[in-house]
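pasting for ref. prot 1 ->
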Amino acid sequence: MKKNLIKIISLLLVLCLFAGCTPDPQPTEPSAPQVTDYASSVTLNQNSNYKQEEVTVKQYIDGDTVHFHSKEIPGGVLKARFLAVNTPESTGKIEEYGKTAAAFTKEKLMGASSIIVESDTENWDADSTGGRYLVWIWYKPQGETEYRNLNIELLQSGLAIASSSFNNRYGTTCAAAIDQAKAQKLNVYSGQKDPNFFYGLATEIDLKELRTNVASYDGSKVAVTGVITMHYNNGFYLEAQDPETGLYYGMYAYYGFNFNGMHLVRVGSEVRIAGNVSEFSGSWQISGMTYSDFIPTADDVKQLSDGNQPAFTLTDPKTFVNGTVDVEMVDPETEEVTNKTFKYAELALGTSVEMKNLYVKSVYTTQSDNENSDGAMTLTCEVDGVTIDVRTIVLTDENGDIITADAYRGKTIDVRGVVDYFNGSYQIKVLTKDYITIHD
């Protein structure tokens, strides 16, 4: 009996040993979440009653606004505001992922063999501004046969947030695209920094926003981007084109005597600078720029490209003296639109311009103990019944001799320079003799 008990116990121990050696079941790998391409899940019906037109791009504005050449819209331009989406701002006051969204839209449309804009109704419906049309953007990528919906693609890529996204015929698809982008933590939903956004201490804005609201930024630190057109008096002039209107906006930036980034701020360089806005001698400027190789910061001057050219906008003298410009000011949060009227020259301050056929009626030459201004001239010119002042620095010829009033008095000239403000009036400042052409 005792032997049988021992055998039973031994058998149980062996069974337990084998049971202990049995490998644990392996955990099942979680299946990857299914990703749906919602931009291709909807289909363009070119036989529908919805208003449609095949178009080509005239001007890229930002992620959700593009101007198209149109045969149906009066004036030939359809200013499209994308339905159902609101991308972060890439103009005015710049927002995270705004420039990224704008680049995404541009890339998709530039690579399209065909673009069709489509209303959500049987009419072309204007947005709250009254000047843009609410549309779906369909594009056919090169080499493909089917159209994709760019509005929905922006949503599924996490480059836009909802904007009446559910109150349209693709509302369910838009909602699903947004939910998927959130689940995948894409772009605006990622919690990650946007590589194209400025994270310095300054507020990033564009030059139009600064020029049209400059007094409100007095004493503030801002970051702006533009092309350097000319150097002057330990600083440079910076300009950038507003994609919406085609107008150029500019500003003078003063770097002073101890700036370490001179290799970045060559004429023709596109740069992003950060500095303080202040009024100096009746005009506005940015100052306090920094650059360091050893302790870099986000606020340092950054060169974005090189080899650019000044715009030298050909300007009509009457427009320069008497012209006005109505600027559409759109609140980015409420989209409320107001119009503000500016003098043409006021808006053009700091930009490069060209003016032709100016008759030099008289010349005033500065006499000063300061060698930097002794010999500088103000050419009082007439053209088409208006008077234009052209202010020069001290100009020298090929031999280093100072050019005097006799070289220009009584002559007809073409000039290139920057718009300047002095003693209560606007003038053209010329910084090299090469920018004055004397007619034969």
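and prot 2 ->
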Amino acid sequence: MTLMPASVVELCPAYPDRVAKYFKEIFVSDVVEIPVQKPSAEQIVNVDVKAELVDVQTVTVTLPFDPIPYQPNPGNKIFVAGNIYLGIQYSALTPDQKVHFFRAQLPFQTILLNDCGLLIDPHDSIFTSGYVVHVCIEKLIKRQIDERKMYFELLLLIWAEEIS
């Protein structure tokens, strides 16, 4: 496995400036609970979202059978893992201090492959010149379930950009 530099960019790729050579879209969702020491929520006021990559690796895979057409053998995958950090501001049901804040963490992981789920050719220039993995938060859905629970769903675009 090879470790490659990683960054977090919340701007989505725009051709020709940022070409998303290998990419994947994933949903990250969870129900979060307000910490017990905090009062119950009346409503969600604001959500601050940050993404962090914690592990980016090139994984070489040798298939144990004759490859299908166009399938390199051995071939590469790009493994990506990270966290989404939510800063949640809400109005409380208590009259003394109306606005409260807490943080939540949503982990994610995925594998970047070639088109049609094929392994990436290990001779691809992305592996010789290097690459940077980016995360784009395309959509955030938030919903209050009850006074103590909130539901969050994010659509992430994760892509590898070749370093030129």
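Strands lie at 2-3, 22-33, 41-61, 75-92, 99-112, 131-144, 149-162.
Confidence is low (pLDDT under 50) at residues 1-9.
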